[in-house]
Amino acid sequence: MSRSLAVVGAGISGLALAWAALRENPDLRVHLFEGRSRPGGAIESRREGGLVLEGGPDSMITDKPAGLQLCRDLGLESLLQPTNEDDRRAMVVRDGRLVPIPEGFRLLAPTRLIPFLLTPVLSPLGKLRIGLDLFLPRRRDPGDETLAGFVGRRLGREALERMAQPLVGGIYGGDAERLSLQATMPRFLEMERKHGSVILGLLAGMRAHRRAGERTAAPAGPRYGLFVSLEGGIQTLVERLVDVLPPGSLRTGLAVDRIEPEPGGWRLRSPGFEERFDAVALAMPGWSAARLTGFDPILSNRLASIRYSSSAAVNLVFRRPQIPGRINSFGFVVPRIENRVLLACTYASVKYAGRAPEGQVILRAFSGGAGREADVDRPPEELLEDLLGDLRDLLGIRGTPLKVWSARHERVMPQYELGHLDLVAEIQDRASRHPGLFLAGNGFRGVGIPDCVAQARQAGVRAAGYLGALARDLGKTGKS
Hints:
The protein is an alpha+beta fold. The protein folds into 3 domains: 4-41 and 241-306 and 417-477, FAD/NAD(P)-binding domain (3-Layer(bba) Sandwich), CATH 3.50.50; 59-86 and 308-414, Protoporphyrinogen oxidase, mitochondrial, domain 2 (Polyamine Oxidase, Chain A, domain 2, Alpha-Beta Complex), CATH 3.90.660; 104-219, protoporphyrinogen ix oxidase, domain 3, CATH 1.10.3110.10. The chain is built from 16 helices and 22 strands. The protein has helices at residues 12-24, 66-73, 113-118, 124-131, 147-154, 157-172, 181-184, 186-195, 198-211, 235-244, 286-292, 297-304, 348-351, 380-395, 420-431, 449-477; strands spanning 4-8, 29-34, 45-48, 51-54, 60-61, 80-82, 91-94, 97-100, 105-106, 109-110, 227-230, 250-252, 258-262, 265-270, 273-277, 279-283, 308-319, 331-333, 344-347, 360-368, 403-414, 437-440. The strands form 6 sheets. A 7-stranded mixed sheet has the order 8-7-18-19-20-17-21. α5 packs antiparallel against α6. The longest helix is centred in the last third of the chain and has 29 residues, at 449-477. The protein is globular.
């Protein structure tokens, strides 16, 4: 008799986990349970009237291979879409105006001298303070450190407020004063340990890339050449994963509210629903998994201690003449010190070709993040008006948008705070005490799509291995 696996949560992690388990053992009976009416979680693409609008993530980074490999395994390689080659740069708001992020600035520090010296993003004193990174002693304490503490110590407060915070905030939606450096940007910690300087570490990395024959271009801000999407939007990946699952294995609109271990398996319960499985995988945010793991109060408490932030992504479609001047970047970020509701804005139809009809432009405006959830807790029309006010002020936009689509994401972005890796190790140790229980999701070791896919694949393979061993053991005893 084939063994059974329940996957609770059908976001990208749950779908990838189910696919990996079935790929490892096609004889498994796998069922996915999703409380919402559709799979995909934060991933949602809308296609209408020649528009492709993204409610959640719009890209995958390619230097983490799991996302690309999944696309290849699913036959989606021909649909991979790189960013447009023109205007691969980003801007940052300084005193109410858009300023290019200097060429060669890599999240925290510069790698090219002249663009850095000429940039108006930082004051002369701010630039001098960054240069001190070349002479400051390295930190001896091996313990964890906040991202703000690291940047302030190595590069100064202005570099933190004007560059690091908005750029890192765009990735994690977090508060640099609380984010763990080891959990979010460990490579910069390693640069200090190995080279004694962030700048020297970045330069050494660039020289290594040259020796390896890799591309040496140093774009401004995010390395846009490393990002890809899919034709029709990232939801294409979700749709293909659903298509390759066995018919009837995905059940949407069914929220599991309790799981219970029992001899040789697990029982899932919900009003009007009860079913037994040999193993269960929870692919969901920590706070949601905590509600299902009451059978182990310590595990539940640790899962609940992972903080999550809320955010909103608002798609705004304009006629091109409504936006004066050139659009010569992929978007911009807004430092918190600017005191605006707008967190960042992406020129979605510039970043990827074929996203809007000729003569139209898609802007994706973001708000919220850790400590700023109140911005997205208000009525949608109030948030929209504030975002439009910021965009009119910064871009000179005239008139009203042709179309608006808002996607609010409540408690979906985990905050990898100080001590996060130790917390994850404790969670994993506690979960391992319950045979047949597996965990996945963005709350543990990476928030991007490739991170989620990699963790889900590992969990799926482990689940298949566990169920295979269970079947063999039961076969030896003659039990079904």
